[in-house]
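Chapter summary example.
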Amino acid sequence: MAITYTSFLHLGMQEDKNDTLNWDLIVNNWKTLDSAVKNRFSFIIDNELVATNASPIDADNIVDVGSYKYSAQSASYIDNIPSEAETDARLDVVEMPGYYRQQIIKTIESTPKIFIRNSTSSPHSLIGSLIPAMTSSTAPSGEVIESGHFQSRYGYYAFDGVDSQTYWQNSWTDGTNQLDGTSEACYVGYVFEEPVEIHSVKIAFTSDRAYVGRIEYRSNGVWHTALDNIPIVSTGYSVYTQTLPSVVECDAIRFCVISGAEDYFATNNYGGNVCEFWVYGKSGMTATWGDWYQMQMQSVQNG
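The structure predicted for these 303 residues follows.
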């Protein structure tokens, strides 16, 4: 019998040499999608996009998971949506593994039109790091904290806004800061002048040994784990970018090296360095999006 499946044009779709569709692969990809969005997608519209000539909205910056409705009047002032969707419609934002999806559903016609696009990466901040480019441990504001540093490789180099050119390297020559599975042995961080809300982080490393790290935030005088089991690879330069499971409010944040292939994070012969540590707030988020495509309804013979 014939079963109607919903498929995405050009997304997960495969064609053979005769330009016919590989429906088995499409169906399998659709099932994978169903599994991926389970418990991550709300079908309840609890937001409304109200845009005007004086206050336009950019769809590229709508990255909070949820469902949004908008009117034809507002659609005229919403940038980066398909021209066919500039009527009363609904915009859904879905979190996928490693990226995000937007889909616009027009239901005012007898046959709904649905448009979708995927981001090419996770959302990122429109603004810079919440930590200013530091020129010393206390300038221009806040305070850099560290477990120690080797020679002139100060902790504030991890926050100076210069990636890979300057870096923090932990102290080791005096026998202290040996990795012992705790957060106190090896860390570099920053204390804000007033509490902030943190949404995501990005850290650049160089290392010729593998280590495991942790990001902690301080609230009411107590350090809490925000992200654990952060990998530092042994192949040179690497960047770790991650959105926190939930937004945290804190007055300090730090990166800690917990364990690794060596007893110390760095020595004169081997080890790792923190090149730069960026911290981002929740507001002002955007994403880099691919093209919009219209969903198609197709009938598939099953069995």
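To summarize the output: The first strand starts at residue 2 and ends at 7.
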